[in-house]
Design a protein that fits this description.
Elements (H helix, E strand, L loop, with lengths): L7 H11 L6 E6 L5 H7 L5 E6 L2 H13 L9 E6 L11 E6 L5 H15 L4 E6 L4 H5 L5 E5 L3 E6 L8
Parallel strand pairs: 1-2, 1-4, 2-3, 4-5
Antiparallel strand pairs: 5-7, 6-7
Helix pairs in contact: 1-2
């Protein structure tokens, strides 16, 4: 199993580039490992912060790290980490900021991107993809468009489909 934590500077820089009212968004880190990105996200006013981790051992460590987080640093709503297969994770019915640091191969990422694209039809969805190896998977959904693309970080965004007037 490959485990590599994200750089705190890279994560903070990504959040700052969003220039959004984060209180309307749920933050999800897919492949959240020991929870470093969750703790960094908790410093921002997301409505909630969720880690999704397949490794029981890493998820247990993330939960311990969340419990140890000083309250004075926390600006987000509820912060949690769940142990589950990302493909089976139920997305919250809210606007999303989703973080990926190459946690999966294309076989897992493709169905998850399709699920996120369906969610993006109802809610604004932003994907922060660090060291993107399969960016075409998000583009192939026809729902996401790149708004930043450099070697360290690719950002995709979508807007919900406007409802028809009655």
């Amino acid at each position: 199993m490959r485990y590599q934590p994200s750089s705190a500077d890279l994560v903070r820089n990504a959040f700052e580039q969003l220039q959004l009212d984060l209180t309307e968004f749920t933050f999800i880190d897919f492949g959240s490992g020991k929870g470093r990105v969750l703790l960094l996200a908790a410093e921002y006013p997301f409505s909630q912060v969720i880690g999704v981790e397949f490794s029981r051992e890493l998820n247990d460590i993330a939960q311990q790290n969340i419990e140890k987080m000083p309250a004075r640093l926390k600006r987000a709503g509820r912060v949690s980490s769940v142990w589950c297969d990302a493909a089976k994770f139920e997305l919250p019915n809210t606007d999303l900021v989703c973080y990926f640091y190459n946690p999966f191969g294309s076989a897992v990422l493709a169905p998850l991107a399709t699920k996120l694209a369906a969610q993006a039809g109802r809610h604004r969805t932003i994907v922060l993809y660090v060291d993107a190896r399969y960016p075409e998977i998000f583009e192939d959904t026809a729902r996401f468009r790149r708004i930043r693309d450099d070697p360290s970080l690719t950002i995709f965004t979508s807007e919900p489909i406007a409802s028809e007037p009655p």
